[in-house]
Amino acid sequence: MMVSLQIVAAESTSWADPVAALAAAAAALITAFALFYQAKALKEERKTRRDEDKRFREEQEAARDAQARAVVLHDVLLVGSDRLGLTEYRVMLGNYGSAPITDVAGHLQRVEDGRTDLDQVVRRPVLVAGAADSLAWDLRPYEMPWPSTADAYARAATFTPRADFTDVYGIRRTCAFTRPAGQPVRLEDPDQARPQVR
């Protein structure tokens, strides 16, 4: 009986080895497939995160640019009279964004006959969100004649105002004034009761 058990044990070992080897090979193959698909999924996850990161940075940049575009120069006002000449140039600086701007420097240049004969700067420390402030430059030292009705637009066009400012993100930006064709220029004569639009 002892011999027959040894024979059965020997026979069972002989058919169990191939089954165990086959099971081990199948397990190794399944593990290889799992590792392959896991690596593929990890690569896809990394790509998705990079794309989301890129989109997030682009959205942040777009938000910063939108805030900067909400700062505009508008409504030119020429102040003076026939008696005094052109005494002041004013333009409104509006911060129509949702965050304040700081270190505002308003520049006014006048280019006539290809040369710059005026370059003045006015400063404002802060302009809060949703506010507008008048930037005014004194022109009395330049003894400029008061423009006629027909000349008001052309006279205003010789001036180039711009505002440099620091936005809430710490980026230094420039806002240049561009007048659409036909935008009226306001003339304010202290000798008259009401400003004129020409």
Percent in helix: 25-40%
Count of folded domains:
2
Q: Tell me the number of strands.
A: 9
Count of DSSP helices? 2
Oligomer: single chain
Q: Could you give the distance between the termini?
A: 125 Å
Quickly give the structural class. Answer: alpha+beta
* Strand order across the largest sheet: 5-2-1-8-9
Question: How confident overall, as mean pLDDT?
Answer: 82
- CATH hierarchy class name of the largest domain: Mainly Beta
- The fraction of residues assigned to DSSP E strands is 35-45%
CA-atom Rg in angstroms: 38 Å
Give the helices and strands as they follow along the chain: HEEEEEHEEEE
What does the main sheet amount to?
A: 5 strands, mixed
From the structure above, extract its key features.
37% strand; alpha+beta; 2 helices; disordered C terminus; 198 residues; Immunoglobulin-like
Summarize the structure.
The chain has helices at residues 2-69, 152-157; strands spanning 71-81, 85-95, 101-112, 115-127, 131-138, 159-166, 172-176, 186-188, 196-197. With 198 residues, it is α+β, with helices and mostly antiparallel strands.
Topology:
Elements: H1 2-69, E1 71-81, E2 85-95, E3 101-112, E4 115-127, E5 131-138, H2 152-157, E6 159-166, E7 172-176, E8 186-188, E9 196-197
Parallel strand pairs: 1-8
Antiparallel strand pairs: 1-2, 2-5, 3-4, 3-6, 6-7, 8-9
Report on this structure.
The chain is an alpha+beta fold and 198 residues long. It has helices at 2-69, 152-157; strands spanning 71-81, 85-95, 101-112, 115-127, 131-138, 159-166, 172-176, 186-188, 196-197. The chain has two domains: 1-69; 71-197, Immunoglobulins (Immunoglobulin-like, Sandwich), CATH 2.60.40. 37% of the residues lie in helices and 37% in strands. It is rod-shaped. Residues 193-198 have low confidence and may be disordered.
